Amino acid sequence: QVQFVESGGGLVQPGGSLRLSCAASGSIFSIYSMGWYRQAPGKQRELVAVISSGISTDYVDSVKGRFTISRDTAKNTLYLQMNSLKPEDTGVYYCNRFPPLSPHWGQGTQVTVSS
Questions:
Q1: Omega within 30 of 0 (cis) for the link into 99
Q2: Average pLDDT score over residue span 16-44
């Protein structure tokens, strides 16, 4: 069974930084594109960043220049470096394959940006 475990969230002030981690198990991590998703209260889950099985990356416009997605193939771990955080970045962040595997969302990690 595929499993994703997110960590690294927390409460930060606007302008602060966080690095999220996602440990993946139950699959060959390196052969799939992976993404970070977030869901704000009352809103639909959205794709924030994606990384291919190679090195190419892409981001939703609202986070370009502030977030960086990366992966460590040997450790089966996905990362999201989040800088210059804004209140609108608040939400639960999830990792998954891209396109996602619907039955295999993790618990997510809460990111709250507030002064």
A1: yes
A2: 90
